């Protein structure tokens, strides 16, 4: 059973950048497709980005395309989310997760989640 732990969140001004990290222990992440999701207060958890096991193909929500980049670390035990040109609407708790089956943009298709890290973007 893998354990995932996010870090790197914080408070940043609009236009700024943050890099989130997702560190894995246990089964690791090298053989999983990994995703980032976010959840703002009162809203559904929404897909942000995914990196596919094997090919390292990446997928992004339209709202973050061109601003965010998902990547794996060289040691294959960490996944990153580089967030640039941040906007106040990016404010949310960000979660990483193991993909289990089906499409990459649906939270119920992921079976292991971290505890989340708060990102707050001020205007």
Structure in words:
This protein has about 120 residues and is mainly beta. Helix content is about 0%, strand content about 50%. The strands form 2 sheets. Strands 2, 4, 5, 6, 9, 10 and 11 form a 7-stranded mixed beta sheet that branches. A 4-stranded antiparallel beta sheet has the order 1-3-8-7, with no helix packed on it.
Summarize the structure in short:
By secondary structure, the chain is mostly beta strands. It has strands at residues 3-7, 10-13, 18-25, 34-39, 46-51, 58-60, 68-72, 78-83, 92-99, 110-113, 117-122.
Q: Output the number of helix runs.
A: 0
Q: How many whole angstroms does the radius of gyration measure?
A: 13 Å
The string of secondary-structure elements, in order, is EEEEEEEEEEE
Most strands sheet = 7 strands, mixed
What's the overall average pLDDT, rounded?
A: 93
Shape: globular
| Straight-line N-to-C gap | 40 Å
Structural class: mainly beta
State the total count of DSSP E strands.
11
Q: What is the topological layout?
A:
Layout lengths: L2 E5 L2 E4 L4 E8 L8 E6 L6 E6 L6 E3 L7 E5 L5 E6 L8 E8 L10 E4 L3 E6 L1
Parallel strand pairs: 2-11
Antiparallel strand pairs: 1-3, 3-8, 4-5, 4-9, 5-6, 7-8, 9-10, 9-11
Short key terms for the protein model shown above:
123 residues; mainly beta
């Amino acid at each position: 059973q893998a354990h995932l732990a996010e870090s790197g969140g914080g408070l940043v001004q609009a236009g700024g950048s943050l890099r989130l990290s997702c560190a894995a222990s246990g089964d690791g992440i090298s053989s999983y497709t990994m995703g980032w999701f976010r959840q703002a207060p009162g809203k559904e958890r929404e897909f942000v980005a995914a990196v596919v096991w094997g090919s390292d193909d990446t997928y992004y929500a339209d709202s973050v395309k061109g601003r965010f980049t998902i990547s794996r670390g060289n040691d294959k035990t960490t996944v990153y989310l580089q967030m640039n040109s941040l906007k106040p609407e990016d404010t949310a708790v960000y979660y990483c997760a193991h993909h289990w089956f089906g499409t990459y943009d649906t939270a119920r298709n992921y079976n292991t989640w971290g505890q989340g890290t708060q990102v707050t973007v001020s205007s």
